[in-house]
Fold this sequence. Notes:
Largest sheet: 6 strands, mixed
Number of strands: 12
InterPro entries: THAP9-like_HTH (IPR021896), TNP-like_RNaseH_N (IPR048365)
Mean pLDDT: 80
Pfam families: TNP-like_RNaseH_N, Tnp_P_element
Domain THAP9-like helix-turn-helix: 25-80
CATH class of the largest domain: Alpha Beta
CATH architecture of the largest domain: 2-Layer Sandwich
Order of helices and strands: HHHHHHEEEEEEEHEHEEHEEH
Radius of gyration: 25 Å
Organism: Nasonia vitripennis (Parasitic wasp)
Helix content: 40-55%
Shape: globular
Domain Transposable element P transposase-like RNase H: 87-221
Amino acid sequence: MALKKWLDAIQNEKLSKLAENDVGLKSLEEKRLNHDKIRKWEEDEKQYALGLYYKSPKAYKYLKDSKGHALPSISSIRKWVNVLNLKAGKNEHLLKQLKIKLEGKCDFENDAVLMWDEMSLRPGLEYNLKEDYIEGYHDLGEYGEREPHMAKSVLVFLVTGLTYDWKQPLIYFPTSSPVSGNKLTEIISDVLQITENVGFKVRHMVCDQGATNQRSVTKLGINKDRPFVEFQNRKVTFGFDVPHIFKCIRNNLMKSDLSIKNETVSWTAIRDLREIERSKPCKAVPN
Length: 287
């Protein structure tokens, strides 16, 4: 605990020295001193404050509360972040905020894995008062027209950190039926470019073994001899979701035996072993 406080004190001291020479912060404070303090924050001021907050919320709070810098309140920051009105397909405001957040990050912090998957939805409609339209229909955004069929699932694209623990949904599509292989291939290619424009460096892609996913992966030129795509002068590797592979093996094994090199693998043997070990302290098959 003492070490953590000491490291925080060193970090705060460094931040104070940086803040003294920060042109953006000085400009923001001068504007506040020369204008009515109750006026609304201007867009450039909001973007600067958001960028500072994204780099380190703790540092932002320190500069505002401990050093007395004229910065927007934390509640204002949170309100601006929560204003996002997301729709199916690309959301430019979200991408803009992500780009601000990634500025100043080290390259390895932005190394990411691109994932996509479908999740089941309970069909239902809801009126969006702000945008004056009804949500809940099949909608591929800019990749197709809205259809008068209630969505039963949602296709979500998400990026997650390769070396750092973070994740961020990027794009979603409510669907009433599976997206075609050709359309999914087009979306994957576009999402790769979107992530690059924002500041992410996708190093790997993951999805399950659904039929549409397999067709799309094949169309991208990925196979067992070439498990990657060339993008922005680098190789972006690909792999099917390992937990999903294990689940598929288990499900198939529960239905029928598996023959490997004249040897039979049976679910019955696994079940019998579990029963034998049920009362033993050391187990080969965990509960």
